[in-house]
């Protein structure tokens, strides 16, 4: 087993894309994206998809390969990503995975628990309930059906809430009863590298990124997607705040300030998730490339 998956992770706006490209050049390999917000081709600015110039520097996979109208689960990503990784390993001993979506990274590196098949009509019903009654209605359902998972989950993450409800309703059992946390064996070595910084630096980088998004045309991008606002893919930071502005609920300055605040909160949740993973070796965001490469080579097979 001399195949190595290099995982680059950390909070949003910390520089994961840049480091991933540098390492791809260093090892002559390709990149798998594990950023669930960047899967959708209709969303570019608000999800900080790598620029054309960045994509030209290294081959990326799982970037804008789906539509917001598609239903795409983490289980499907696990299957497709593993297939692509195995294909890439036939050409190189290294593959790089870059992203801040902890669940998607865990799906590939550790495996997911087995869940029952979901009735598509249940999914459609929940999506309509969310559209008609909002997130609080779904939160109350989950609290009643699975109080254990309700206490663990980020109750503001609509996707996670809906996924848990799908399983509860389809199976008649609590979602938490399917969580065994049994790590699966993978036919490759995983090397996890985390990038971080002082909280104030992370928050400043986030604020600057939001300003750049606004300058780059985030408002126009969200306007073009307004009629699809009920779709789950669009219930995400940077889009839902602008929807409130377009609804005349908020003024633009307040919407922008809320994007910054909610992105900072998202980064905090990311760090909480990743810091539980003892397999991650952490580097400061300004660490030199050589030190990261040295760590990777030291842990390679």
From TrEMBL:
Its EC number is 2.5.1.75. Residues 35-38 are annotated as: Interaction with substrate tRNA. It catalyses: adenosine(37) in tRNA + dimethylallyl diphosphate = N(6)-dimethylallyladenosine(37) in tRNA + diphosphate. SUPFAM superfamilies: P-loop containing nucleoside triphosphate hydrolases (SSF52540). ATP binds at residues 10-17. InterPro entries: Dimethylallyltransferase, IPT, P-loop_NTPase. One of its GO terms (biological process) is tRNA modification. Keywords: ATP-binding, Magnesium, Nucleotide-binding, Transferase, tRNA processing. Substrate binds at residues 12-17. The record marks 101, 123 as: Interaction with substrate tRNA. One of its GO terms (molecular function) is ATP binding. Its cofactor is Mg(2+). The keyword Magnesium applies. The keyword Cytoplasm does not apply. HAMAP family: IPP_trans (MF_00185). NCBIfam families: miaA (TIGR00174). Belongs to the IPP transferase family. Monomer. Catalyzes the transfer of a dimethylallyl group onto the adenine at position 37 in tRNAs that read codons beginning with uridine, leading to the formation of N6-(dimethylallyl)adenosine (i(6)A). This is tRNA dimethylallyltransferase. It comes from Aquimarina mytili. The gene is miaA.
């Amino acid at each position: 087993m001399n195949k190595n998956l290099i995982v680059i992770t950390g909070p949003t706006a910390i520089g994961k894309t840049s480091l991933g490209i540098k390492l791809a050049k260093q090892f002559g390999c390709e990149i798998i994206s594990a950023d669930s917000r960047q899967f959708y081709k209709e969303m570019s600015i608000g999800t900080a998809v790598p620029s054309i110039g960045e994509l030209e520097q290294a081959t990326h996979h799982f970037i804008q390969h789906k539509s917001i109208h598609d239903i795409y689960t983490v289980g499907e990503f696990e299957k497709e990503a593993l297939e692509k990784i195995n294909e890439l390993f036939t050409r190189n001993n290294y593959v790089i995975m870059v992203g801040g979506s902890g669940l998607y990274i865990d799906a590939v590196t550790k495996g997911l628990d087995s869940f029952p098949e979901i009735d598509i009509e249940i999914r459609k019903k929940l999506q309509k309930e969310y559209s008609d009654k909002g997130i609080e209605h779904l939160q109350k359902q989950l609290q009643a059906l699975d109080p254990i998972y309700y206490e663990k989950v980020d109750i503001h993450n609509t996707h996670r809430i809906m996924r848990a409800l799908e399983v509860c309703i389809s199976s008649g059992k609590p979602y938490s009863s399917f969580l065994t946390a049994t790590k699966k064996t993978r036919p490759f070595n995983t090397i996890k590298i985390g990038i971080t910084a002082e909280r104030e630096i992370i928050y400043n980088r986030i604020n600057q990124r939001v300003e750049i998004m606004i300058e780059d045309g985030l408002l126009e991008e969200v306007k073009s997607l307004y009629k699809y606002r009920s779709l789950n893919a669009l219930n995400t930071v940077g889009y839902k705040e602008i929807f409130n502005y377009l609804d005349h609920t908020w003024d633009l300055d307040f919407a922008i300030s809320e994007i910054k605040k909610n992105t900072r909160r998202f980064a905090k949740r990311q760090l909480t998730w990743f810091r539980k993973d003892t397999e991650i070796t952490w580097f400061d965001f300004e660490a030199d490339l050589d030190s990261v490469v040295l760590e990777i080579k030291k842990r390679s097979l």
